[in-house]
Amino acid sequence: MSESSIRMVVGLGNPGSKYTSTRHNIGFRVIDRLADMHGMSITRSRFNALYDKGRVKGQELILVKPQSFMNLSGNPVRALAEYFDVEPPEILVIYDDIDLEFGRIKIVSKGGHGGHNGVRSLIDTLKDRSFARLRLGVGRPDPRIDVSNWVLGKFSAEEVRDLDQFLDRAGDAASTILIKGLKMGMNTFNCSR
Questions:
Q1: What is the per-residue pLDDT across 27-53, written as a single tens digit (0 to 9) for each?
Q2: What are the residue numbers of the active site?
Q3: How far apart are CA 105 and CA 192, in angstroms?
């Protein structure tokens, strides 16, 4: 079993009840699942972020939901990372990805932003792209639908039927990364749906 080096897990989303059920906020929802799974509660507030600190398998873990808007996510994440002395390679970021079909999960160790404004903000602010990513497929809209309207829209009735199972699998994927390491997470979840 490979020990994980991840100490901070960040879910991306937008603050406020109007965004709660949107595709863009799936990162927040997985953070809530992870908190439930590991006996944590995302109620502390600092640096324009909600967070909690706990332990998973004896290792310190910080769960984070930035409360800036998506395209400014980097500022609260950098402030918390500096405060808790967390380096970019010790961060896992969970977010929606239109390049993956709904329900697909892809774990990568680093990379570019792929057009995602939250990830772009993290790269620009951290001046580093070596953080791990848990990308959650929300599908690509019909070409006639504006991408920002799509990600700020709610899941379809058909998607909602499968959403709980998807969120559970995403929580399991993040937990696998935390407990068994990134490589085991990739081997287990990148090929399944």
A1: 999 999 999 999 999 999 999 999 999
A2: 24
A3: 8
